[in-house]
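Quick one:
INPUT:
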C-alpha cells in the first residue's frame, strides 16, 4: 500500500533535496522497522481513524514541546508555550538548571546529509553538555526506546566527518503525567486519549489489587524529564544501513522511477 498520492508527494515527504540530489529521510527509513506495540494501540480503539486522529493530535503536541524546548536551548526570550504542555516545559526548565548545556542556534533543527550512504535528516540540536559535544534528540514519549538509536546513529554517520569532536548522542525525553493521590498509579494524556498505568511493584500484589479497585483521584500534571546518553553508535549505524537497504527494496519501483536507484 502506497502512503503517497503521486511521485511529487513522495519526493517532498520522503526525502530532501540536498544540493540538487534527492536523499531519503532518516525518519522515513527507520519506519521500515515493525512496531508490534502499534497493533496493540490500534486494537484498543474503536476504529483505524480513531488511531490516526490520536497520532495526528499527539504529533502536534510533540511539535509544540520541540518548539518550546528548542527556543529555551537557544536562550530566546519568547518561549512559545501553551497551558497543555506547561508541566513538561516547567520540568525541563528545572532540569536544565542542573545541566551545563550550551547550544549553538545555528545547529538547531540542522539539516544533515550523508553523501556517501545517500540519506538526509534534521537533527534537533548539536549540544555541548558537561564538556561533551554530541547530538541531542528530543522525544516526547514515556520511555527512551531503543529504536531511537537507529535515528541518532544515522545523524552521527552524517556528521562525524564535518565535526570530528562529535563524541556522543543524547535522547532528551520530555513527557508529563498525573499520579493518583490514592494508589500511586499514573495517567498520561496524549493526543486526546487518557491512558492509565496501574502501579506495579514486583512481588507486591496488594499494591496492584488496591490500584485495580481504586477510584483514582488525579493530582495536577507533572513533567517527567530524563537525558539518556548512548556514546557507542557504530553497531546502531550498521543496523540503520540494514534498515535503509530494506526500505530501498520496499520502495524499489518509485525509487527507480525518480532516478534514485
Ligand atoms: Zn488510584
Amino acid at each position: 500500500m502506497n502512503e503517497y498520492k503521486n511521485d511529487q508527494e513522495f519526493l517532498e515527504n520522503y526525502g530532501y533535496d540536498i544540493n540538487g540530489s534527492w536523499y531519503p529521510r532518516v525518519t522515513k527509513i527507520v519506519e521500515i522497522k515493525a512496531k508490534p506495540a502499534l497493533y496493540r494501540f490500534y486494537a484498543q480503539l474503536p476504529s483505524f481513524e480513531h488511531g490516526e486522529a490520536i497520532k495526528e493530535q499527539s504529533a502536534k503536541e510533540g511539535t509544540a514541546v520541540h518548539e518550546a524546548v528548542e527556543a529555551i536551548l537557544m536562550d530566546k526570550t519568547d518561549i512559545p508555550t501553551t497551558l497543555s504542555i506547561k508541566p513538561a516545559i516547567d520540568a525541563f526548565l528545572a532540569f536544565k538548571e542542573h545541566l551545563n548545556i550550551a547550544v549553538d542556534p545555528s545547529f538547531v533543527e540542522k539539516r544533515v546529509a550523508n553523501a556517501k550512504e545517500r540519506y538526509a535528516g534534521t537533527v534537533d540540536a548539536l549540544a555541548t553538555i558537561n564538556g561533551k559535544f554530541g547530538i541531542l534528540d528530543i522525544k516526547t514519549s514515556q520511555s527512551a526506546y531503543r529504536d531511537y538509536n537507529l535515528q541518532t546513529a544515522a545523524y552521527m554517520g552524517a556528521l562525524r566527518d564535518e565535526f570530528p569532536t562529535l563524541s556522543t548522542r543524547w535522547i532528551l525525553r520530555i513527557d508529563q503525567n498525573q499520579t493518583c493521590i490514592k494508589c500511586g498509579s499514573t495517567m498520561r494524556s496524549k493526543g486526546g486519549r487518557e491512558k492509565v498505568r496501574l502501579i506495579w511493584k514486583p512481588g507486591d500484589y496488594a499494591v496492584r489489587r488496591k490500584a485495580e479497585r481504586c477510584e483514582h483521584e488525579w493530582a495536577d500534571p507533572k513533567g517527567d524529564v530524563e537525558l539518556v546518553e548512548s556514546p557507542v553508535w557504530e553497531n546502531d549505524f550498521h543496523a540503520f544501513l540494514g534498515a535503509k537497504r530494506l526500505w530501498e527494496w520496499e520502495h524499489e519501483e518509485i525509487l527507480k522511477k525518480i532516478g534514485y536507484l
